C-alpha cells in the first residue's frame, strides 16, 4: 500500500514538473516581450535591453526556467505589474470567494445527483430513469452561464426573491451569504449534477448486475440495505474517480459563473489580469489552479485507495 | 516484396476498412431508428443549412442598425426582438450559427488532426515516444479545459482564429488517447500481422491498415467534441476573449444581453437558447452514433 502511495506521489511530481514546463512555455510564448509591455510607448532599444537584463530575459531559456522554478518553489508566483503586488497575495485574496462558490455548488450537485442517479438505476427504463437521463443530457448541453442569467431573470428580476448579483462572505452574514450564494451555486451545481447523475446511474447499474448483489438478495437482506450498504459503496468507487476530474470542470465553470453574478473571485481576477495584460498574475493563477487540481486528484486517488481494499491488497502483494 | 504480393496485401489489409464504408447505410438506419438520434441529426442538418443559407434566410443583415427600434420586444417585424442598437436578434443568431459551427468544426478538425497523429505514433511506435507523447497529454489534461483555453487566449490574443486554435489544443488529448487505445488493441490482430509479414511499410500499416479500424470511436468523439467546442467558444466569447464584436457570436450576444436583462430579457434569452439547442442536437447525435457504431452496445441493448 505504501509502495502504491509512493508510486502515485512520484507520478504527481512528474506531472507537476511537466505542468511547470507547459506554464513556463505558455508565458514565454506571449507575443511582445514583458520588457516591452512594461515600458510601453517609452521603449527605446537601450531601455529594453536593460530591463531584459534586469529581468534575466537575456539568459538562455533553460537558465530562465530554473530561476523561475526556484522562485515558484519559494512561493513567488510572479508580480502584478498593474497592482504592484505579489500575484500570490492577489490569488489568496480571491480564493475564498471561489471556494465558497465551488463548495456550495458541489453540495447542490450531490443533493441532485445522488437521488436522481440511484433512483434511475433502480428502475432502468422506467419513467424515473428516462426523466433523469433526459434531464442529465439537457443539463450537459445547457450553457451554464445562460442558465445563470435565466435564473437571475426569474428569481431576482421577476419574483424578487433573491439578489441578482453580488458576493457576501459566509463569515460576515450567514443569512445574506446564503441568499447571495443560492443562485450561482444552483447554476454551477446543476452543471455538475448532470454528468454526475450519469456516472452514478451507470455505476449503480453495473454493480446491481453483479452476483454478490443477487446473493445478498437471496439471503434475504432487506432491499434498503442491499442498495445502501452493498451496492452504493461499490458504485461510489467509479464516481469518486470522475469527481476529481469534474472538480476541474467546476473550477473552470466558476470562472464563467463569477462573471455572470459579479463575484470577485479567481475568475474575475484572471479576466481583469488578461484585459490589463498583467501576465504575472495570469501565470500565477494558471500555475496555482492547475497545481491545485493535480493535487486534488492525487488526494482523490488516496480516498479511492481507502475505499477500495482490493487496490490495497493487490499492491501490497506485488510490493 | 515481389510484384505479385503487393495487390494481394492491399486487398487483405484494406478489407476491414472497406467493410466499414459499406456499412454506412446500415449505420444511418440504426441512427434513424432511435428517436433521439434522428432528432439530433435533423437538428444538426437544419442548423448547418441555416448557417450556410444565412444571407437568404435571415430577415435582416446582421450589422443592420435600426436606431428607432432599439430594444424593441419580439414582434412580427422582429421575431425575436432587437438589441440596444436596434439590430434584429434573430438575424444575428442565424449569422451567429456560422461563427459557432465553423469555430467548433475547425477546432475539432485541428484537434483530430493533431490528436490522431500523436495517438497513432504513440500507439504504433510505442516505447519512449509513447511515454513522451502521453505524458504531455496528461499535463494538458491536468488543466481544467476552460482555464487552459483562457490562458491560451491570453497568450494568443482574442480573435476568431485564435479561439479555433485554443479550443483545438484543449481537445487534442481526448483524440490522442482514444486513437492510442484503439491502435494498441488492433495492432496485434491477424490482418495487421499479415500486412507486416508481406513487408508493408510502417507508415502504410499505421495509416491505411490500422487507422480505418479506429474510425468509429473517433467519429463519436468528433460529434461530442464538437458539442463541447461550441460550448467553450460561447463561454470564451461571453467572457470577451473569443469572437470580437460586432461579429455576431452567440456568446458575446449573451454577454451584452446580460447587462440589459431588466430592459430587454429577450436579448440574452434567445442566443443562449440557440447554444442550448445546437449543443443538445450534437449530443443526441453523438449518443446515437455511439449506439449505431458500437455493435457490442447494440447487441447488449437488443437483448435487454
Structural features:
heterodimer, A: about 325 residues, mainly alpha, 13 helices, B: about 300 residues, MetI-like fold, about 75% helix, disordered N terminus
Task: Furnish the topology, listing elements before pairings.
The complex is a heterodimer of chains A (319) and B (304).
Chain A: H1 2-29, H2 34-39, H3 45-55, H4 61-73, E1 79-80, E2 85-86, H5 87-122, H6 127-141, H7 144-158, H8 174-208, H9 211-218, H10 223-261, H11 266-275, H12 279-307, H13 309-318
Helix pairs in contact in A: 1-12, 5-6, 5-8, 5-10, 5-12, 6-8, 7-8, 7-10, 8-10, 9-10, 10-11, 10-12, 11-12
Chain B: H1 5-22, H2 24-33, H3 35-52, H4 54-57, H5 89-125, H6 127-141, H7 145-156, H8 160-186, H9 190-197, H10 202-210, H11 215-238, H12 250-259, H13 265-293, H14 295-303
Task: Give structural notes.
The complex is a heterodimer of chains A (319) and B (304). By secondary structure, chain A is mainly alpha-helical. Helices cover 80% and strands 1% of the residues of chain A. Chain A has a two-stranded antiparallel ribbon with strand order 1-2. With 304 residues, chain B is mainly α. Helix content of chain B is 76%, strand content 0%. In chain B, α8 packs antiparallel against α11. At the A-B interface, α1, α6, α7, α10 and α11 of A face α6, α7, α11, α12 and α13 of B.
Amino acid at each position: 500500500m505504501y509502495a502504491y502511495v509512493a508510486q502515485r506521489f512520484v507520478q504527481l511530481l512528474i506531472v507537476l514538473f511537466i505542468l511547470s514546463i507547459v506554464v513556463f512555455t505558455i508565458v514565454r510564448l506571449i507575443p511582445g516581450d514583458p520588457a516591452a509591455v512594461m515600458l510601453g510607448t517609452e521603449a527605446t532599444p537601450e531601455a529594453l535591453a536593460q530591463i531584459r537584463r534586469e529581468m534575466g530575459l537575456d539568459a538562455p531559456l533553460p537558465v530562465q526556467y530554473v530561476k523561475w522554478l526556484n522562485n515558484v518553489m519559494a512561493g513567488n508566483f510572479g508580480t502584478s505589474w498593474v497592482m504592484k503586488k505579489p500575484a500570490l497575495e492577489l490569488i489568496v485574496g480571491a480564493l475564498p470567494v471561489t471556494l465558497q462558490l465551488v463548495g456550495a455548488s458541489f453540495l447542490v450537485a450531490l443533493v441532485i445527483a445522488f437521488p436522481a442517479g440511484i433512483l434511475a438505476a433502480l428502475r432502468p427504463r422506467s419513467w424515473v430513469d428516462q426523466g433523469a437521463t433526459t434531464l442529465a443530457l439537457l443539463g450537459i448541453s445547457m450553457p451554464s452561464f445562460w442558465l445563470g442569467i435565466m435564473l437571475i431573470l426569474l428569481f431576482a428580476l421577476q419574483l424578487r426573491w433573491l439578489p441578482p448579483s453580488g458576493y457576501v462572505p459566509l463569515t460576515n452574514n450567514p443569512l445574506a451569504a446564503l441568499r447571495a450564494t443560492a443562485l450561482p451555486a444552483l447554476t454551477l451545481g446543476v452543471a455538475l449534477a448532470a454528468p454526475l447523475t450519469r456516472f452514478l446511474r451507470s455505476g449503480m447499474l453495473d454493480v446491481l448486475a453483479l452476483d454478490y448483489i443477487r446473493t445478498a438478495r437471496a439471503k434475504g437482506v432487506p432491499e434498503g440495505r442491499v442498495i445502501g450498504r452493498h451496492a452504493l459503496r461499490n458504485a461510489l468507487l467509479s464516481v469518486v474517480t470522475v469527481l476529481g476530474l469534474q472538480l476541474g470542470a467546476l473550477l473552470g465553470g466558476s470562472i464563467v459563473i463569477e462573471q455572470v453574478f459579479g463575484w470577485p473571485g479567481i475568475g474575475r481576477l484572471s479576466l481583469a489580469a488578461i484585459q490589463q495584460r498583467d501576465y504575472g498574475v495570469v501565470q500565477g493563477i494558471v500555475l496555482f489552479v492547475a497545481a491545485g487540481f493535480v493535487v486534488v486528484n492525487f488526494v482523490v486517488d488516496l480516498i479511492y485507495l481507502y475505499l477500495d481494499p482490493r487496490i490495497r491488497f493487490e499492491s501490497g502483494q506485488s510490493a | 516484396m515481389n510484384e505479385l504480393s503487393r495487390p494481394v496485401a492491399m486487398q487483405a489489409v484494406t478489407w476491414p476498412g472497406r467493410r466499414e464504408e459499406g456499412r454506412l447505410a446500415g449505420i444511418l438506419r440504426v441512427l434513424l431508428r432511435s428517436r433521439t438520434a434522428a432528432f439530433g441529426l435533423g437538428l444538426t442538418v437544419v442548423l448547418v443549412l441555416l448557417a450556410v443559407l444565412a444571407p437568404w434566410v435571415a430577415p435582416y443583415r446582421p450589422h443592420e442598425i435600426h436606431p428607432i427600434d432599439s430594444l424593441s420586444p419580439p414582434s412580427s417585424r422582429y421575431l425575436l426582438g432587437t438589441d440596444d442598437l436596434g439590430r434584429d436578434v434573430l438575424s444575428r443568431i442565424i449569422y451567429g450559427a456560422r461563427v459557432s459551427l465553423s469555430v467548433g468544426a475547425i477546432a475539432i478538425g485541428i484537434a483530430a488532426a493533431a490528436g490522431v497523429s500523436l495517438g497513432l505514433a504513440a500507439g504504433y511506435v510505442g516505447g519512449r515516444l509513447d511515454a513522451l507523447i502521453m505524458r504531455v497529454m496528461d499535463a494538458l489534461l491536468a488543466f481544467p479545459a476552460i482555464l487552459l483555453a483562457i490562458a491560451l487566449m491570453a497568450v494568443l490574443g482574442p480573435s476568431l482564429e485564435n479561439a479555433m486554435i485554443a479550443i483545438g489544443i484543449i481537445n487534442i488529448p481526448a483524440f490522442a488517447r482514444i486513437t492510442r487505445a484503439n491502435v494498441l488493441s488492433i495492432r496485434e490482430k491477424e490482418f495487421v500481422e499479415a500486412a507486416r509479414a508481406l513487408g508493408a511499410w510502417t507508415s502504410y500499416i499505421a495509416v491505411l491498415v490500422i487507422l480505418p479500424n479506429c474510425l468509429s470511436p473517433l467519429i463519436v468523439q468528433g460529434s461530442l467534441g464538437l458539442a463541447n467546442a461550441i460550448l467553450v467558444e460561447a463561454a470564451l466569447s461571453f467572457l470577451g476573449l473569443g469572437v470580437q464584436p460586432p461579429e455576431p457570436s452567440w456568446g458575446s450576444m449573451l454577454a451584452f444581453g446580460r447587462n440589459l436583462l431588466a430592459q430587454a430579457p429577450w436579448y440574452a434569452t434567445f442566443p443562449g437558447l440557440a447554444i442550448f439547442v445546437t449543443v443538445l442536437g450534437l449530443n443526441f447525435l453523438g449518443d446515437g452514433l455511439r449506439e449505431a457504431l458500437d455493435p457490442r452496445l447494440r447487441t447488449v441493448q437488443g437483448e435487454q
